[in-house]
Amino acid sequence: MAMSKSLQEVQAPISCQLCEEFNEIQWKCLQCNFLMCSRCRKIHQKVRSSNQHKIIDINYIAEYQQQSSVPDFHIECGFHAGQICCLFCQTCEVVVCPSCIAKTHHEHSMIVMNEAYDLAMKSIKCMNLEVKQKLSEIVSEKSKLGAIKSSVALKYAKEKKVVLNQDNLVKMMK
Phi and psi at residue 24, in whole multiples of 5°? Predict the structure, then answer.
């Protein structure tokens, strides 16, 4: 009996992660990874960049997680301790948490993390291809420069020999 009482004393209700009030948590946005009350769910759905977000009843979180095979991004916010980034702000090119969205980025263009990841991977692949092409060009140019250097070195050696021979002839004539 003492143990169950101590567990109850330790437990604290979770506040809505949007309004930060102790309203009853009923919903979870899977993309933003935050819990919210019914009032904030309505507000969240009105945000232009969240039209493709999946919001589920918290009673079905475990069932959904078993069905889902989408990679899950858990990037902790660098500005708000304990907050997980849920969107990518294309305007600022940073990942943002719900607090960042509410305070700073609410009018910016945002996309879900998976889309941002796909865009970043596509960009990295393009840059990688460009780097390989530039590297190939550099290797080719280096080879050409090596050939020119050896050609110039041969001409230098020949001219040096001619000059030294001329110098010897002049010295012998004296």
Answer: -65, 125
Least confident of 45-49, 115-119, 156-160: 45-49
φ, ψ at 109 (rounded to 5°):
-85, 120
Torsion sign (Cα): 118, 122, 125, 131: negative
Q: How far is CA 106 from CA 11, 68, 79, 88, 123, in A?
A: 33, 28, 16, 12, 26
Cα separations in angstroms, 27 against 16, 36, 54, 97, 98: 9, 5, 10, 17, 14
Q: What is the DSSP letter of 150?
A: H
Q: Using alpha carbons, select from 122, 101, 124 the residue that is nearest to residue 111.
A: 101
Enter the tokens of residue 174: 């004296």
Question: Phi-psi region for residue 93, left (φ > 0), alpha (ψ -120 to 50) or beta?
Answer: left
Between CA 174 and CA 79 the distance in angstroms is 87
pTM over 0.70: no
The 10s digit of each residue's pLDDT in 70-120 is: 456 688 899 998 888 889 999 999 999 999 998 999 899 999 888 888 898
